[in-house]
# Entry
Amino acid sequence: MEPEKVSFANCRGETLAGMLHYPQEQNARGAAILCHGMESNKESDKLVYLGEALAQKGMLTLRFDFAYGGESSGRFEDITYAGEVADLKAAFSFMRGRHEGKIAILGSSMGGTVALLFAAQSTEVATLVTVAAPVHPERFTSRLLTAEQLQQWRDTGHTFYHGQRINVSLLHDLEQINVPEAAKKITCPVLILHGDMDDVVPVEEAHELHQCIAGVKKLSILNGADHRFSNALHTNRAVSEAIEWLCEHVG
# Structure
């Protein structure tokens, strides 16, 4: 069945665009929401494949663009973790209107961190899968910028990342969030997927996340995998493990 173009509003009045994959069966065995990373969107090859594969497994699946990306309204320069958590809340509410049963979330990179922060706030999340998710996004600033550049970001109100403007609201946001503390509040089962050759998010952060999760959890480290799982073998394994986990805990 062809996916349906859908849209819904976030709490800021922006329109979020999504694609909804329907299972062949009339009654879905469960539902899933797929969250992309910072410079990606819902048309990521991995998310498109996951949407199709999960629908074939009988799960109603939504992949959507956060407010700054893809076909959604909003500006990239306004990106914050808090804003994306609010977007995910809107996506979850949209899915709750379509499905009364269990709803899972899978998030990649920044989308994985956003999923963790949301799951810490909501007991409705049935299960969670993170892929290369930063546990210490606040460390990116010191890793990417000098002290002088950081101060300039504060003074001017913006900086540039990969040629794109980012407002100081992201810096303020990073100073407020605490992912390890949030992770300790998560009650649903969590699968953590990470590559040991990730040069964007150190694999040690995946181990730390695993320690923070108090309930049912699994840590899967893929040997040789980078941040984007650019090797097809690593992608296939990660996708396979994610599908198996989601079907086990939602179906």
